[in-house]
Amino acid sequence: MAVAGAVVLLLAAGIWTVLANASAGASTRPRHAAAKPGAYTTARLDQLLAQLGYLPLTWTPSAGQKVPAGNDAAGQRAAAYHPPRGTFTWKSGYPSGLRRFWRDGTTRGLILQGAVMAFEQQHGLTIDGIAGPKVWNALFTAVAAHDMNKNGYTYAIASEGTPEKLTIWHDGRQVLQTDANTGIPASPTTIGTSPVYLKHYFQVMKGTNPNGTPYSSPVYYVSYFRGNLAVHWYPRPSYGFPQSLGCVELPWGVAKAAWQYLSYGSLVTVQAGSQTPGTSPVDPTT
Q1: CATH number of the domain at 7-29+153-271, please?
Q2: What global pTM score does this model have?
Q3: What is the DSSP letter of 60?
Q4: What's the pLDDT at 6?
Q5: Domain ranges in the chain?
């Protein structure tokens, strides 16, 4: 299922709210996880997020480089302007396709954007993927306190092969694989990659079917990753082929597990396969 109407009714903390709808092909993610021009360097942002466990990579300083202690506030701020040199190393266990979203030292990588979103969510900040002053101040505080990523690192691929499947990797190992449903030709799922930006345990999705009839569907374990497209539970007699209005539908038990792994900022890739409709849009940036 996907949201096709004007509004979505959400139940959060026992309160119904209204969320304006985005188009199925659009992504609400910001394009770059950037610091403002003239501010701290993206290279140091990468290093600190790796140090705190928000990346699928580790960082090691080069020999002879001076790295400030976590509680050295002046040293940390100086390093944010002039970062020490070093090397990033991929953690094992993730699919090789994840590597194309890494842009060492630049603002154009989805891995960095997702990591900033994950950090923002865990530290009570606006989840926009942009490393502004509040994010940097929280980073310095987290480094000083050795406040590590509490959710680990998750990556997911929804493959539109035969059968369609959702596979999830968490902290370097595959933790879930299940048959799944993606979008029908009249309402296909966008091919591409985006980070999870909104989560709900329960939601009533309301909209209009391709034939013009309205729908009102209660769903659980909802993780939005692109516009109005989400991974969630939806009851079907079977799974593994296009049935939804763009979302990635899962059976109950695995939907619950997927929801727990798909934390804010987790990248979700929708991968073309033998069952991809010819109408499916493709995100050219991913």
Answers
A1: 2.40.440.10
A2: 0.88
A3: E
A4: 29
A5: 7-29+153-271, 42-145
